[in-house]
Specification:
This protein has about 140 residues and is of the alpha+beta class. The chain has four helices and five strands. It has a single domain, classed as 3-Layer(aba) Sandwich (Aminopeptidase). It is about 30% helix and about 25% strand. It has a five-stranded mixed beta sheet with strand order 1-2-3-4-5, sandwiched between helices. A hairpin with a 2-residue loop joins strand 2 and strand 3. The N and C termini lie far apart (about 40 Å).
Length: about 140
Amino acid sequence: MIVERIKPDEIEKFIELREIFIEVFKSDAPALNEQQYAQLRDNRNFVVVGATVGFELVGGLTAYLVPNYYKGGLDLFIYDIAVKTEHQRKGVGIELLKFTKNFCLEHGIKEMYVAAEDNDEQALSYYRKTDAEEIGARFFIYKFD
């Protein structure tokens, strides 16, 4: 297995990873247009990591670098992480997190966050098995359709 950062010019890999997210999360997310992909590609604070087995992209994560105005520096917020169903429970997710932790250490990032919904038992169970500290927090979403 190879885990590596997907570079901004590797848009095909990102599109493939987005399809994995849509499949795993059972989402009906609409297709993105060229302008939307360009916004992601050009965002220096957008981080994409992929895991490949053989020639197949089997999972990955997206994250954002966020300025920490209390402590200074940057934090990393994992926005999505997913592994194809047939590759789950084989260490892919752990390797994705390990790679991302090392990315943080190499770039002087002091804290990394990931959110999981209260009713997502699979995600909660997974994160509880890692060395993350669980904190009580809730997200509130404002939708503007």
